[in-house]
Structures are given as structure tokens and as C-alpha cells.
Amino acid sequence: MYIMATFDHSIYVELALSDLEHRQNIPKENILAVPLDKRMEQKQLIDSIHRADGVSLFDLGAALATGFGVIGASVGFQLEWGPIIWGITAAVIGFILGFLIKLIFIGTQHQYQKNPKNKTSELIVIIHCYNNQIERIEKTLWDNLALGVAILDNEWQST
């Protein structure tokens, strides 16, 4: 059996590994700890057709451009330049306003993403063990603040 767990880089990882080796007699050869690399590049604000992250800067701008354009065209019947010029002008103003609001909102949201729910894994621990050791190992990993634990049954490989 394989047990996999993800952790933050902390002293709890060392405590878990020490407990597994000394108390539960798991040999060092059966434990693998792999640190993960962090993403160094910044998120892109403009999505392409091949890559999108679900955050759009244009949706609010398009909605405000539509609303402002309709109102500008309606009011433009009463003004000197006519409904077409005022509709286009209002639509451009609405789009720029929506784009700036969304840009500021995403910027402040990215700045304050210190929420513990958004914690990312920094280390993966993989343990090769027997079936009768699973419950104790899993309890040890959870007690030492693992972010996630998974168990892989490797019976499918024994052909």
C-alpha cells in the first residue's frame, strides 16, 4: 500500500517523519518526501484562447458598455450630436469604467489572499507500508497537520 500526504513546510513534517520511523518502525527506504516548486511567474490578466484561468476583466466592462450605450443612445435623441455618437461614447465610457473596476477588484483580491483555505501544498510525503499499518500512519499524518491524505492500493500491480 502507498499512503500519500501533502504538507506545508513546517516542523510538523519532521515530527511526522520521526514518529513514522521510530515509533511505527517504517524504514527510511519506504518514506519519500518531495518538496514542490512554487510558481514564480505572475498570473496573466488577459486570457488567450488556449489558456484561461476563469478570471475575466472584460465581463463587467461589456455589461456596463451595453447598459451605458443604450442609455447614451436614448439620451442622444435629445442632444445635439445624435444617438449614434452619444451611444458609442457612453459605451466606451461604460467599458473603461467596468474594466477599471474589475482590475482594481482583482488587484485587491490578489493582495489579500492570506486566507487559510487557500493554503497550497509545499511538500508531498509518500509512504510504502503494509495493510495493517494504514490506520496508524494515517492518524499520525492527520495529527501532524497534513493538508490532505490519500491511500493507494497497489494490488493491481501484483500480476
Q: How is the topology of this model organized?
A:
Layout: E1 2-7, H1 11-22, E2 31-35, H2 58-76, H3 83-111, E3 123-128, H4 134-143, E4 148-152
Antiparallel strand pairs: 1-3, 1-4, 2-3
Helix pairs in contact: 1-4, 2-3
The secondary-structure class comes to alpha+beta
In round numbers, the mean pLDDT is: 84
What order do the strands of the largest sheet run in, or round the barrel if closed?
Answer: 2-3-1-4
**Can you summarize the main beta sheet?**
4 strands, antiparallel
Beta-strand content bin: 5-15%
Q: What Rg do the Cα atoms give?
A: 27 Å
Query: Residue ranges: pLDDT <50 for 5 or more in a row?
Result: none
Notes on the protein architecture:
There is one protein chain. The protein is of the alpha+beta class and 159 residues long. It contains 4 helices and 4 strands. The chain has helices at 11-22, 58-76, 83-111, 134-143; strands spanning 2-7, 31-35, 123-128, 148-152. The protein has a 4-stranded antiparallel sheet, with helices on one face. The longest helix is centred in the middle third of the chain and has 29 residues, at 83-111. The radius of gyration is 27 Å and the shape is rod-shaped. The mean pLDDT is 84.
Brief summary of the model shown:
The protein is α+β, with helices and mostly antiparallel strands. It is built from 4 helices and 4 strands.
